[in-house]
Amino acid sequence: MDRHYLEDLHAGQRFGSGTMRMDEARIKSFAAEFDPQAFHLDDAAARGTIFGGLAASGWHTAAATMRLLVDGEFRPAGGIVGAGFDELRWPTPVRAGDTLRVECEVLEVRPSKSRPDQGIVKLRTTTLNQHGQPVQISVGNLIVLRRPAQQ
Questions:
Q1: Tens of pLDDT along the chain (151 residues)?
Q2: Rounded to whole angstroms, how far apart are CA atoms 135 and 20?
Q3: Most buried of 29, 93, 103, 135 (most Cβ within 10 A)?
Q4: Per the database record, which ranges form the MaoC-like domain (predicted)?
């Protein structure tokens, strides 16, 4: 199935992704532009922080998660269009050399009351490192198109 319409989705469905390796140069480059804090930019400075070493920005982890989602198995009709998050956590820092993957689970599917051509899917997305440790957990609400009526 190329795209998932609202009618194709139900609570309990799970989807996966490929992998992405996080390297030191990209961690520092992202941080330099978007989150220029020492623990994202400098190995020596990062050792003296709560991270104990260089750690990717949570926002870099979120961006990597988005890329893995777009390239992954969960392919909602209309694209991955967010309507907001109920939860977003970074329980474990991402380190240079980590390989990330995404697992998502449909938690709820509901048709829109005001827009008959779409609905909302509540999705838990867990980004894991190569050790199976969660590095990001989010629960988000996505707008998903309904299957067009046959003409």
A1: 589 999 999 999 999 999 999 999 999 999 999 999 999 999 999 999 999 999 999 999 999 999 999 999 999 999 999 999 999 999 999 999 999 999 999 999 999 999 999 999 999 999 999 999 999 999 999 999 999 876 5
A2: 13
A3: 135
A4: 19-123
Quick check: 145 and 94 in contact, CB under 8 A?
A: no
Q: Which residues pair with 111 in a beta bridge?
A: 119
| Helical packing angle, 24-34 and 58-71, nearest 10° | 110
Residue 41 lies inside a defined structural domain of this protein: yes
Give whole-number Cα distances, 70 to 5, 11, 21, in Å.
Answer: 16, 20, 16
